[in-house]
């Protein structure tokens, strides 16, 4: 009886199973990356002790509100040291139930490599993300950090840089700038980058959306202190009868890629798709500035730019009276220096009183910059 029971038990144990082998749910190529990047929890604060014990294979992920807390602390500079050695990822906070996005500039300014956004929402943060990666390095999705960002002395809160540029942009016109809001589109040009470069200006509304014309408008002048980390954004909007702005299109790309002369700027929708036949015609001038005191230069130059733009904002033509008014502004601020500079000033005014307003403002502005920097 016992032998019979043992034989039956052996047959049951040796019976081939009809179950299929379990499938491996892991991707081998993805699992192989574990040896290069190891997820670790983000610390409450990037102290000096934590930075000294970093391992280059570690990677931390945290929400946008935690990033803001890191930046406000005294150890914010250590966040740059962390992102110079390890990888970091920041994602939207959990209560963004409407799939809105946060501003990615803060994360980029502190060297964070991965910024997670809600791609289903075509808002301004997504447009900045498109402009930073689509128009750089062939659109492969990887952009090399600027050299000064990996410098131990770099601070994104400073406003003292040696490679500042002055941008002079004249929006002449456009085409196919249609919207459901109205028929008076306008162009807003802004700089997006470090806090010291967050500036913007806009044209007056045009009288047509099919072929809008801003040729008689003001010259938009922007001072970019750090062009290596800045982007320029062209945004076309329209207002309805209630004053609500309607987005028409945009074009965003790095300042370093901005070319001078007459240029055609294509417009894209919020998802980065090019709008058919929608373009802007602009004239761009770019000058490298050399200054020994960037802080004083920024305050003085922006004040002068504002004063000149306010004077010419509503002008459709230039008369001899306008030229006389501009000379009064020159004499008021730089009377003594201007007397010695007048003989070699290359700004020529024709006998009939017609003058190139763009060239007059640009050259006069650059001359004042050189005089301020040499004092």
What's the short version?
31% of the residues lie in helices and 22% in strands.
Radius of gyration: 29 Å
Shape: elongated
Helix content: 25-40%
Low-confidence stretches: 332-357
Largest sheet: 4 strands, parallel
Give the helix tally.
10
Euclidean distance between termini CA atoms: 114 Å
**Number of E-state strands:** 12
Q: How would you classify the helix and strand content by structural class?
A: alpha/beta
Report on this structure.
With 375 residues, this protein is of the alpha/beta class. The protein has ten helices and twelve strands. The strands form three sheets. A four-stranded parallel beta sheet has the order 1-2-3-4. Strands 8-5-12-11 form a four-stranded antiparallel beta sheet. Strands 7-6-9-10 form a four-stranded antiparallel beta sheet. Helix 8 packs antiparallel against helix 10 (357-374). The radius of gyration is 29 Å and the shape is elongated. The model is unreliable at 332-357 (pLDDT under 50).
Element layout with pairings:
Blueprint: H1 2-13, H2 28-31, E1 38-39, H3 48-52, E2 58-63, H4 64-72, H5 76-85, E3 87-91, H6 105-109, E4 114-115, H7 124-134, E5 165-175, E6 186-192, E7 199-202, E8 220-224, E9 231-239, E10 245-254, E11 261-268, E12 274-288, H8 294-312, H9 320-341, H10 357-374
Parallel strand pairs: 1-2, 2-3, 3-4
Antiparallel strand pairs: 5-8, 5-12, 6-7, 6-9, 9-10, 11-12
């Amino acid at each position: 009886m016992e032998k019979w029971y043992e034989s039956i038990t052996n047959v049951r144990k040796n019976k081939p199973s009809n179950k299929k082998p379990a499938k491996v749910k892991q991707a081998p190529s993805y699992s192989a990356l574990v040896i290069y990047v190891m997820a670790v929890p983000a610390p409450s604060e990037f102290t000096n002790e934590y930075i000294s014990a970093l391992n280059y294979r570690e990677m931390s992920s945290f929400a946008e509100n935690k990033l803001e807390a890191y930046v406000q602390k005294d150890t914010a500079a250590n966040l740059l040291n962390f992102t110079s050695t390890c990888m970091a990822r920041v994602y939207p906070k959990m209560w963004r139930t409407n799939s809105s996005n946060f501003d990615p500039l803060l994360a980029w300014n502190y060297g964070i490599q991965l910024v997670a956004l809600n791609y289903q929402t075509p808002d301004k943060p997504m447009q900045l993300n498109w402009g930073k990666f689509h128009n750089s390095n062939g659109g492969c999705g990887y952009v090399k950090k600027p050299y000064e960002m990996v410098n131990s002395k770099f601070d994104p809160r400073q406003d003292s840089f040696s490679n500042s540029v002055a941008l002079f942009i004249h929006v002449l016109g456009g085409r196919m700038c249609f919207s459901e809001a109205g028929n008076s589109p306008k162009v807003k040009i802004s700089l997006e980058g470090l806090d010291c470069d967050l500036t913007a200006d806009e044209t007056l509304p045009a009288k047509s959306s099919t072929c809008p014309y801003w040729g008689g408008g003001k010259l938009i002048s922007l001072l970019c202190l750090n062009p290596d980390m800045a982007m320029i954004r062209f945004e076309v909007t329209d207002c309805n009868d209630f004053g609500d702005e309607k987005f028409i299109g945009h074009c965003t790309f790095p300042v370093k890629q901005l070319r001078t002369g007459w240029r055609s700027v294509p417009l894209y929708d919020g998802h980065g798709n090019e709008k058919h036949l929608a373009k802007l015609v602009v004239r761009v001038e770019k000058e490298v500035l050399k200054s020994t005191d960037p802080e004083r230069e920024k305050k003085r130059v922006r004040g002068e730019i504002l004063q000149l733009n306010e004077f010419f904002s509503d002008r459709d033509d230039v008369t001899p009276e306008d030229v006389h008014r501009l000379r009064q502004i020159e004499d008021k601020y730089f009377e003594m220096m201007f007397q010695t500079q007048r003989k070699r000033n290359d700004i020529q005014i024709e006998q009939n009183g017609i003058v190139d307003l763009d060239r007059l403002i640009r050259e006069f502005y650059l001359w004042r910059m050189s005089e301020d920097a040499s004092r």
